[in-house]
Every structure is written in structure tokens, then in C-alpha cells.
């Protein structure tokens, strides 16, 4: 029998801050990248310690959820087969405008129009 994977433990590096008379200590502030918006587009921009920790978390999650991978694929395919790819809702008036949600064929997220 194989050993279960061990989850990564983020080291604590407390940083104290005070705002509006309230003192706060955040032991995980080191995980917050200053340029996080750019890093969302290119993870290589993350500082090495943050990137390494997140890669370890992702590897752990992949290992723990691996037994359900085939089932997830089958469920996804079944759900996808039950929904038209170009599905849309009925427009709902709100003030002078009408809003609806639609999907693009091959898209992953709804478009709110």
C-alpha cells in the first residue's frame, strides 16, 4: 500500500500592520505578491518562494484527487452533453435596459449581456 501524499504546510512569517487603530498580524502575508495581476497572466512573475509553495499545493491536490479523475471526466462530458453550447436566457428588463446571459459555442464562461 502506498503512503498518502503529505500536504504542504505554508511557513508562517508574521507581519504586523495597524490600520484605523486596529493591530493585525498576518502570518501568511508573504504569499501575497505585489504584482499579482501580472502574475495571473504569467505565473513565472511570482517570487520563487510563492511559486514553489503554490506548485506544491497544486501537486498535492492533483495527487489527492487523482482517483476521481476518470469520474470527473465522465460527469463533465455528461453535463456538457445535456446543455446546448449556444444556450441563452430570456432578457430581463431592468430600467431602460434588458439583460440576458448567453454562452458561446466552445466557450467556458457565460457572457452577461
Account of the 3D structure:
There is one protein chain. It is built from three helices and six strands, in the order ββαααββββ. It is α+β, with helices and mostly antiparallel strands and 113 residues long. It folds into two domains: 1-82, no CATH class; 85-113, no CATH class. Strand 3 and strand 4 (97-99) form a beta hairpin. Helix content is 34%, strand content 18%.
Show the helix and strand layout:
Elements: E1 15-19, E2 22-26, H1 36-41, H2 48-65, H3 69-82, E3 92-94, E4 97-99, E5 101-102, E6 111-112
Order of helices and strands: EEHHHEEEE
Radius of gyration over alpha carbons?
A: 22 Å
Helix content, binned percent:
25-40%
Number of domains: 2
What is the 3D shape? flat
Termini gap? 53 Å
User: Count of DSSP E strands?
Assistant: 6
> Which percent range describes the beta-strand content?
15-25%
The low-confidence runs, each spanning 5 or more residues with pLDDT under 50, are none
Question: What is the average per-residue confidence, as pLDDT, rounded to a whole number?
Answer: 92
Profile the largest sheet: 2 strands, antiparallel
In the sheet with the most strands, the strands line up as 1-2
Structural class of the secondary structure composition? alpha+beta
- Count of helical regions: 3
